[in-house]
Amino acid sequence: MSEKNKVRWAILGAGRIANAFAKDFYLMQNAELIAVASNDKEKAASFAKEYNIPEAISHEELFNSDSIDAVYIATTHNFHFEQAMRCLQNGKAVLCEKPITVNDSQFKKLLSVSEEKNVFLMEAMWTYFLPAIQKAKEWLAQGRIGKLKVIQADFAFNMEKNMQGRMYNPNLAGGALLDLGVYPISLAYYFAGKSPEQITASGVMTHTGVDESVGMIFQYGDVTADLFTSMVTRMGNTLKLFGEEGYIEIPDFWKAGAARIFDKEFNHVETYEDHRTSHGFIFEMQHANDKILSGRIESDIIPHSRSHSIHETMTAIRRQIGLKYPFESK
Asked: E-assigned strands of the chain?
């Protein structure tokens, strides 16, 4: 850690998600962004110039640097395991985009090294930290809609049909489930507070061997989650929590800026809006930064056990729909 008691950050990757992280970084306290790493030197240099980042470096230079305390991994998820492992092995705290690994077996290995090296590891589940999501959780805890009975969420976009791109290519761990489905699955966990006791899933596969759409029913005792994800059509992308005395609606829940509560007759009761001017990554970023400074190795909002459970759930879904990637062991 730097002598100024600041976390010195680097970004691994220079794509769309990395831009969102960099744009919110100016709001960070007790942190400095000192490097961006990409194996495309021109892309890294352009990114560094745009966000006034001192260094544009290669992946290897990042892994071996003594001046970097923490790394935000913003590459595609087929690279997450190897890159997170290299960071942890070199004593660098990791905030890694979701899904943090392709399967639960990979996550267990990262967890083992995090504990062995006493180094912070966190999945970047930014939606958990958004004020509107936390307000909905507060309403639920206050009994504003009575006992929770049904969680309903869809997350679907019509993605570019590039068979060699990250969504359709099995060698890049493509498909709707890992890229999009992780959102409704993670939010169902957030509001149910545990892993599902029963999982029923069905999927439609592409000719490249990845999933284009997945329907999921989770049972948590007497609470049911009805979830759907797809990369071939856009849907409402709304999350609803139905209780015995009303329901909560969160439009565009993945980037939620508002939450609405209704009574059991579906009359509108209250709206919460966060009125933020930032992208919204700052909430998880500051949380991770604070945990690193305090010497923790995990978050209390998205702890290792929760990421592990979510990945176990997605692995179970993959078994049911027959989704396996060529690089996974047989």
From this structure: 7-12, 31-37, 55-57, 70-73, 93-97, 121-124, 148-156, 198-205, 211-220, 223-230, 239-243, 246-250, 258-263, 268-273
If asked whether residues 25 and 61 sit together in one domain, one would say: yes
Task: Tell me the per-residue pLDDT of 124-134, one tens digit each, with 9 for 90 and over.
Answer: 999 999 999 99
- Chain segment 232-241, per-residue pLDDT in tens: 999 999 999 9
Task: Give dist(CA 312, CA 325) in Å, integer.
Answer: 16
The predicted structure's pLDDT at residue 125: 96
Domain extent at residue 99: 7-124+281-299
What CA–CA distance (Å, rounded) separates 200 from 305? 22
Residue 2: the pLDDT is 46
CATH number reported for the structural domain that contains residue 228 in this entry:
3.30.360.10
pTM: 0.94
